[in-house]
Every structure is written in structure tokens, then in C-alpha cells.
Amino acid sequence: MSKFRKKKKGVPALSTASLPDIVFMLLFFFMVTTTMRETDLQIEAPRLPNATEVKKLERKSLVSTIYVGKAKEAKYGTGYDRIQLNDKISTPADVPAFIINERTKVSELEIPFMTTSIKADKESSVGTLADIREKLRDVNALKLSLSTHTGSVINK
């Protein structure tokens, strides 16, 4: 027997000293890049019409969106004339209160730059859109955008 034994050289253990730094860096990255969904749609996702002259909205923080389409649940009724403001099904009479509420969320200097965007399904009636436009005129919300897809208007 020998008094001195050779130490076995194996694979050194993996250093975990930098692991918390990597975890926090990934956490910070996902916090910065992830966007939160603002509304939960109570209507079916609108099938937007096509248009050739399309322009992107500049400042999305100043855009108030009104959804028009078919309700997902039967308790809201059937047909394509359901209006969603924030997270609830509403009527055209509720549009002025919605716009006034949206104006309270921004500074007074930004109110003239606010835009109302209507995301309406292809099958929605023009009468519903006309009612919404009339109510928007009542509260002087004159900047209006109709959301569309880019494409040919004529379908073959």
C-alpha cells in the first residue's frame, strides 16, 4: 500500500455563479418586449374589409378602438351589429361616454390628436356605423379611422 494516492482528474463542476445574472437579464428582456392585451374581445374577431389606400396610425397610445361585429355568446343576441367598448357589449348611445372616459386618460394637450378607430366586420351594417359616427360627432370626436387589410377591393 502506498501512502500517497493520485487524485482523479474529472470534469470540473459547472459554475453557477453567473446563473442569477442570466435569469434576470432574460426576465428583463421579456418584460420590456412583451405587450399586454388591452381588451378581451366579446365579439368574434372582425373580418376586416380590404382597401388599397391604407395608412398606419402614428401614435397608438392616442387611439380609442370600437369593435363592431357578431357576439361570441348568444346572451348578447345574434347578428353582426354588436358594439364592444373596452370589455363590454354596448349600444351606440354609450359611445359618447366611452370617448369622454378615454379623454380623461390623456393630457389636455393631447386631446386634439386622439383618434377613434372602428374595427368593423365585413358583414356589419352601414346603419350601425352611421349611428356610431353620429354619436362621435356629438362629442366632437372628428378624427376617425376605419381599420382594414391591405389588398384589392375587387374580389374575383
Helix content: 10-25%
Q: Rg to the nearest angstrom?
A: 27 Å
Strand order of the largest sheet: 4-3-2-5-6
Q: What portion of residues belong to β-strands?
A: 15-25%
Sum up the overall morphology in one term.
elongated
Average pLDDT value? 84
Low-pLDDT residue spans: none
- Helix and strand pattern: HEEEEHEHEE
Structural class: alpha/beta
> How can the largest sheet be summarized?
5 strands, mixed
Distance between the ends: 94 Å
Count of helices?
3
State the total count of DSSP E strands.
7
Explain what you see.
The protein is of the alpha/beta class and 156 residues long. The strands form two sheets. It has a five-stranded mixed beta sheet with strand order 4-3-2-5-6, covered by helices on one side. A two-stranded parallel sheet has the order 1-7. 24% of the residues lie in helices and 17% in strands. α3 links the parallel β5 and β6. The mean pLDDT is 84. The chain is elongated, with a radius of gyration of 27 Å.
